[in-house]
Design goal:
The chain is α/β, with parallel strands linked by helices. It has 2 domains: 5-196; 220-261. The protein has 8 helices and 8 strands, in the order ααβββββαβββααααα. The strands form 2 sheets. Strands 1-4-5-6-8-7 form a 6-stranded mixed β-sheet, sandwiched between helices. It has a two-stranded antiparallel sheet with strand order 2-3. Helix 6 (198-233) runs antiparallel to helix 7, helix 6 (198-233) crosses helix 8 and helix 7 (238-245) crosses helix 8. It is globular, with a radius of gyration of 23 Å.
Length: 262
Amino acid sequence: MEKVFEELQIKDDFMFSIIMRNPKFCKPFLERILGIKISRIEYPKSQETIDISADAKSVRLDIYVEDGKETVYNIEMQTTENRNIPKRARYYQGMIDLNILEKGDNYKDLKRSFVIFVCTFDLFGEGRHIYTFENRCIQNLDLGFGDDTTKIILNTKGTMDDVTPELKKLLDFIDGKEPEDDFTRELDEEVQSVRKSEKWRLDYMTLQMHYQEKFEQGIEREKIDSATRMIETGKLSSKEIALYSGLTLEQVLELEKKLQLA
C-alpha cells in the first residue's frame, strides 16, 4: 500500500481486486488460466472475508467467484516472495469448504474448487509459468484422490514454453510488459480508467489509513508487551523501562498500576 494511486498496476492487490470484480474481465482471466470455457460468473465478491468462528482466524480472499456449475474459484495476487504460499493455499481451501458446509450442505455436496495464486516470482525455481497440484496416490500417480480440489501457482517470470500464447501474454502483462492482444489491452484500459476514478482514489486512501492505523496499533502493542516483561522482572526502574520500551513514563506508571491490581 506504499504506492501512490496513479502508479497502481494490475499486479497490485487493490487494482487487481477492483478489475476482477467485473465478470467481463474475471471470466476470460480464468478461462486463460484453466484452458476451459466458463458459461458465466456468478456474484463476484472482492476481498470476501470468511469467518468460521469467533476464535478462528478469518480468511480474506482477493477474488472468490462461482461459475454456476458447482465450481468455486479463489484467485490471489502475490507480489512479495513468500514461502508460506503452500500452507496458505491449504488453509484457504479448508476454510472455503467449511464456509460451504456452514450453509447447510452435506460434505458430499462440496463443490469443485480451484485456489489460484498469481505470483510475480518463481516460487519453486523450476522456470515454469504454471504449477498445478492435485491429490494423487504416491504409489500410482495415475490414481487421483477424487476430492475435486486443485491448486495452481502461476509465475509471471517463467522461462519454459509450457503455456498457451494467450496465457503467456497475460502473465507478461501482469509482470509489467506492454499489452500484446485484445484482452490485455482491455485490461490496460481498465487500469487507466480506475486510476482516473475519484471514488477508487478515496477508497484507496481510506484503506491506506486503515492499514497505517493497524500498523501503529501493532507497534504500540509491542511496546506494551515489552514494558510488561521488563516490569515483571523487577530489575529496572520506571524511567529505564520507558527508555527501553519506547513508552512514555506516564504510560509505564499506569501499566505498573494495572499489573499490581491484576
